[in-house]
Amino acid sequence: MTGDDTKHLPLEDLHAAAGARFGAFAGWSMPLTYPAGVMKEHLHTREHAGLFDISHMKLFEIRGSGAEALLNRACPFDAGALEVSQSKYTFFLNEAAGILDDLIVTRLGQARFMVVANAGNAEADEKHLRGLALDVEAKGDFDAKIDALDRVFLAVQGPEAWAALSRAGIETGSLLFMHGFEPRENWFMSRSGYTGEDGFEIGLPEADARNLVAKLLEDERVMWVGLAARDSLRLEAGLCLHGLDITPEIDPTSAGLMWAIPKEVRASGAFIGADALRSILERGPAQKRVGLKPEGRQPVRTGAALFDTDGNPAGHVTSGGFGPSAAHPVAMGYVQTSLAKPGAKLFADVRGTKIPVDISPLPFTPHRYRKG
């Protein structure tokens, strides 16, 4: 990718002024770390409140009498079952039940939904949705309009996130985990995140975002946190990264994500990939996503091959690194279904050295969401 193709965050000047070190991610120039460093940024989020610029992600508003039908075709869930302000983790699947993207859908009104999609898939997701909308319109007397919103998107994560937002004039007390609403005109806020901590994601106009950031950073409990610590936080929390832990070649059954698909939708839903997913469920997946805990202090990284105790190929690592809160290396990967048992012993090949690895329950650190 050339420099001219790289996208830049609207608040890039604020990150530069804060001393951010930038790097490429999903076609964007993103702040990877700040002067405090990955370890302090990670631990500060777990103990206080981390401020993340996630404007590389995309928000889509879907509205109209065909909005539910569109989402029910695009995703393996029941859009009609969502209450106003309720959010749902779901997917776009292909016909083979591979995960094109994972996303969060929030019902904003009777015929209005907000979809939050991943950065690297945003253009493909929009094309996918618009194509499906044409199909929905052709099959009945209703419409489904899709608007890609131009918003700065911020995340405030950590046990003191609510208090920091309150001090900045944003009250969050009645909002529970996996719920969202529009607190002001052209704002969208949900109680959700990618760290395993209590937290919020806020989409808002750039001018409002600059004002909010200034207020938040006046609070000593709040620190800018970059993409590197965001990755270690989500890995400790056992959360998948699309493109690594979930891909168009991996189905929700293998990924251990069937909890996101209601039983009645599994049985009779007409979503894309439904027949393939039912077939996989019937015969059982050949591989499963598991947590991996290497012995010692040596992390195992993405792509490392896994072997059983007899030296036979057993799977591979999809995400790996050091967990500052767990205080040991952490990883996720896929192994043969017969080996996917907590405590099972494997070996990871790290530059020719076989590192002993235990299959571990996920997450590595407890989730601390505010569910009520």
UniProtKB/TrEMBL annotation:
**E.C. code:** 2.1.2.10
- Which positions fall inside the GCVT N-terminal domain? 12-262
Q: Which GO terms describe its biological process?
A: glycine catabolic process
- Reactions it catalyzes: N(6)-[(R)-S(8)-aminomethyldihydrolipoyl]-L-lysyl-[protein] + (6S)-5,6,7,8-tetrahydrofolate = N(6)-[(R)-dihydrolipoyl]-L-lysyl-[protein] + (6R)-5,10-methylene-5,6,7,8-tetrahydrofolate + NH4(+)
Q: What is this protein called?
A: aminomethyltransferase
Residues noted as binding substrate in the record, renumbered to the chain: 201
The family this protein is said to belong to? Belongs to the GcvT family.
Which molecular function terms from Gene Ontology are attached?
aminomethyltransferase activity; transaminase activity
What GO terms fall under cellular component here? Answer: glycine cleavage complex
Q: Locate the Aminomethyltransferase C-terminal domain: which residues?
A: 288-364
* Swiss-Prot/TrEMBL keywords: Aminotransferase, Transferase
This chain's source organism reads Mesorhizobium wenxiniae
Domain of life assignment: Bacteria
Matching entries from InterPro entries are given as: GcvT, GcvT/YgfZ/DmdA, GcvT/YgfZ_C, GcvT_C, GCVT_N, TrmE/GcvT-like
Entries under SUPFAM superfamilies matching the protein: Aminomethyltransferase beta-barrel domain, Folate-binding domain
Pfam families, per this entry?
Answer: GCV_T, GCV_T_C
